[in-house]
Amino acid sequence: MLNMEPVLNYLPENQTSNKRKAQDILNDISHDVTSKRTNLTTCDTSCDSSHDITSHRLGLEFYDQPCIMLAKSLLGKTLVRILDDGSRLSGKIVETEGYLGVEDTAAHSYNGRKTERNMAMFMTPATSYVYLIYGMYSCLNVSSKGEGCCVLLRALQPLEGLETMTAHRSKRRKDTSKPLKPKDLCSGPGKLTEALNINKALLDKKDLSTDTMMWIESGDSVDAAEIVACPRIGIEGTASSEWLIKPLRFYIKGNECVSKRDKNAEKTTQLQSGHT
Question: Does pLDDT of 218 surpass 90?
Answer without folding.
Answer: yes
